[in-house]
Amino acid sequence: MAWIYLIIAGIFEVVWSTFMKLSHGFSILSYSILTIVGMILSFAGLIIATKHLPISIAYPVWTGIGAVGSVLVGIFLFHEDLNWITLLFVGLLIVGIIGIKITSGE
């Protein structure tokens, strides 16, 4: 169950970073509020997950989900262009996240 909370927390990290971009520097109140709500939910999920998972496992997976998810949002929602080498390194992040899960024994 801790892994489910961790994945949800990572998804909310993507949510809050997306709303932060949409808030235009916290100048749009609705997106600013959604950013803060997303942050709270993301941190809450991480807190719950770290009750049962080591921080050395939970934190890199949480940030990795957020990083990869934010890249995907940037590409598909904001039409950001990334070169192939950047996408290669994003792929390595994904491999790293999967590797941490497989080798963690949790």
TrEMBL record:
TM region(s), chain numbering: 28-50, 57-78, 84-103
Keyword annotations of the record: Cell membrane, Membrane, Transmembrane, Transmembrane helix, Transport
Membrane topology: Multi-pass membrane protein
Pfam families: Multi_Drug_Res (PF00893)
Top-level taxonomic group: Bacteria
Alphabetical list of InterPro entries matching this protein: EmrE-like, Small_drug/metabolite_transptr, Small_multidrug_res
Family classification: Belongs to the drug/metabolite transporter (DMT) superfamily. Small multidrug resistance (SMR) (TC 2.A.7.1) family.
Name of the featured protein: Quaternary ammonium compound-resistance protein SugE
Organism of provenance: Lactobacillus hamsteri DSM 5661 = JCM 6256
